[in-house]
Design a protein that fits this description.
With about 140 residues, the chain is an alpha+beta fold. It contains 4 helices and 6 strands. A 6-stranded antiparallel beta barrel has the order 1-4-3-2-5-6. The two termini are about 30 Å apart.
């Protein structure tokens, strides 16, 4: 994963999110999502969806092994199911292994949304969290 010094803002985010779900996770890192400038197949504009996301909001992760561009593809969606974009290749390849071996054991939480401007598309940084084996055993995830 990308190793870098955390900013004071990242440290404050870590402190707050660890207070919320700290005992349930054993690993976490930050990653941007990609593909946010495309519309979904149903015509929903991802840029509009990003603007409705808020810090600390949980999002869903879904494997997409049939994706011809990347067999490790994992897309990020609002809880209601609307696709926001994809994890970048590096994050997806790391997380796909856990999905395939251990099932759905990763959470995505909104770290930050960069608003759309005249010169730039909206973007999003996620905090990706791997759940502990103990948490997974005691909180089974329903199939989607």
């Amino acid at each position: 994963m990308h190793k870098h010094a955390l900013s004071e803002e990242d440290k404050e985010f870590d402190r707050r999110f660890l207070a919320i779900i700290g005992s349930a996770i054993d690993k976490h890192f930050y990653s941007k999502i990609v593909g946010v400038t495309f519309n979904n197949s149903d015509g929903i504009n991802r840029q509009d969806l990003l603007g409705k996301c808020r810090m600390f909001e949980f999002l869903d992760l879904y494997r997409e092994p049939e994706n011809t561009a990347d067999p490790n593809a994992i897309y990020v969606a609002k809880t209601a199911g609307a696709k926001l974009g994809y994890l970048d290749r590096h994050a997806a390849s790391e997380i796909a292994k856990d999905f395939d071996v251990r099932g759905k054991v990763w959470l995505a939480m909104v770290r930050a949304v960069t608003p759309k401007s005249k010169d730039r598309a909206a973007g999003m940084v996620l905090c990706l969290c791997r759940l502990t084996d103990e948490f997974v055993r005691t909180h089974p995830v329903k199939s989607s």
